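Posting this for the archive.
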Amino acid sequence: MASGSKVWSAFSLAAAIGAATVMKKTLNTSWKAATGKNPPANPADPDVDIWEAVMWATVSGSLIGIARMLATRRAAHYYARSTGHLPPDLRKDGQDADKAPATTS
């Protein structure tokens, strides 16, 4: 089980880094096309306009986070098809209907 966990850790890390890298390049290109200038290298720099910094942080953080999540989900799907089970850290915790707490009406 420990070797499977190590394989999953490496596999999910590679997927997440790859997705983040591709999304970052896409965002940089899109930002330059939309604004005519490079995205802020450091949004915390006081010389960067506050609204530009906020917009860059919001857009880049959201889209990179979504890309990482989708890549990790795809990697988990591939891992599950290959091994017959989900990775240990992705097994369902109380998500099944039979494990849901009983509600009283």
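Residues 42 and 48 are 8 Å apart (CA to CA). DSSP finds two helices and no strands in the chain.
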